[in-house]
Design a protein that fits this description.
2 copies of one chain form a homodimer. With 148 residues, the first copy, chain A, is mainly α. Chain A contains 7 helices and 3 strands. The longest helix of chain A has 33 residues. The structure holds a DNA duplex (30 and 30 nucleotides).
DNA sequence: CTGCAACCTCAAGTAAACTTGAGGTCAAGC
DNA sequence: GCTTGACCTCAAGTTTACTTGAGGTTGCAG
C-alpha cells in the first residue's frame, strides 16, 4: 500500500511533536540526520516516523554522542522510508550498549572517588605516597586514574 | 610554617602534571577556575595543590558540567591557599552526588528503553496506544518520557 | 654572561550545535 | 480571493571551550 497523505507532516508539526526548534530540524536535515520531500511550493514534508527518529537523536545526544556519531548510528535505518519494528529494535539495542558502558564508567569513577574521599585526595597524589614505588609517579599525577 | 619555594610551580609543570595544555590552563585562569601569583618577570606560579584542583575540573567536565558550574563547585575551596583534607572531602562528596544522579538518570533511561525495545517503539507512541486514555497523547509524543 | 626553552600578551581562528534576521513565498480558512 | 500564520533560503551571529600565531620577555644551565 502506498503512503497515505496523512503520513506526511510539515516541519512545524514535527517540531511540536519532538520539542525541537524548527531551525534545529532544518539543521539536522543539513547534517543528514533526517530527510524530507518537498511540496510543489518547496515546503518540507516529513514522514511521521521521523518523530521517532528525532526522539532517538535527542536521547543519543543526552548520552553525549555528537551529531556525526548519531548519524552513523542512524545509518542502520532505511533512508526516507518508515523503519519497521526490527529496525528499531536493532538500533535501540545499540543505544542500550552505549548506556550500559556509560553507567559502568560512571560507576568506576564513583568507586575511585570513594576510595579517595577518605584521604581527601583527588589526584591520588597522596595515595601514591602510600603505595610506594608505584607507576603513578612515573606517569604523572593527573586524574587519569579516575578518568578512563 | 610559610610556603616553601617548592610549593610554587610554573605553568609548564602544572600542564605536565594534569595533562592539560598550557593554553587551557591560562584559559581556566581567565575563567576563574584557578589563580596564580606572578614572579618579578610576570610569569605565573601555581600552588602544587592546583594539580588537584585541575584534576577535579577534568573529572567534573567528564560528567558534563560546564566550566561555569565547575567554578561554582570550586567556590567551596579556599582561594589561592592550599585546601585541606576536609575541603576536598566536602567537594568530593558533592561530586559524588552528581555522579549518583547521573547514574540514576541513565538507569531510568535504560529501563524505559528496555520496555520499548519489545515493541520497537522509541517515542512510546505505540505504547501510548496500549495504555489507552493516557496523558501521553495530550502532552505529545516526544522523547520526554525517556528523557528526564 | 649568554643561549634557548619556557614563559608572556593579545587577537584571531576553530568546531559543534544551533539561533536570529532579512527578505520573500505558500496554503488554508473565512 | 485575500489574509495571515507557517514556511522558505542564506548569511551572519552566539556560546562553549579551547588552540594558534605573532611578536616579545624571562630565567636557569653551562
Amino acid at each position: 500500500m502506498a503512503l497515505s497523505r496523512n503520513d506526511l507532516i510539515p516541519i512545524g508539526v514535527l517540531s511540536r511533536r519532538t520539542g525541537l526548534a524548527v531551525s534545529a530540524i532544518r539543521y539536522y536535515e543539513d547534517r543528514g540526520l533526517v530527510t524530507s520531500i518537498r511540496t510543489g511550493g518547496n515546503q518540507r514534508r516529513f514522514l511521521r516516523s521521523d518523530i521517532r527518529r528525532l526522539s532517538f537523536v535527542q536521547i543519543a545526544q543526552k548520552l553525549g554522542l555528537g551529531l556525526a556519531d548519531i548519524a552513523r548510528e542512524l545509518a542502520a535505518l532505511p533512508q526516507g522510508r518508515t523503519p519497521n519494528v526490527m529496525d528499531w529494535q536493532r538500533i535501540s539495542r545499540s543505544l542500550r550498549k552505549e548506556i550500559d558502558s556509560r553507567i559502568q564508567l560512571l560507576t568506576r569513577t564513583r568507586n575511585k572517588l570513594d576510595e579517595c574521599i577518605g584521604c581527601g585526595c583527588l589526584s591520588l597524589e597522596r595515595c601514591a605516597l602510600y603505595n610506594k614505588d608505584d607507576r603513578a609517579a612515573a606517569g604523572g599525577t593527573g586524574p587519569r586514574y579516575v578518568l578512563d
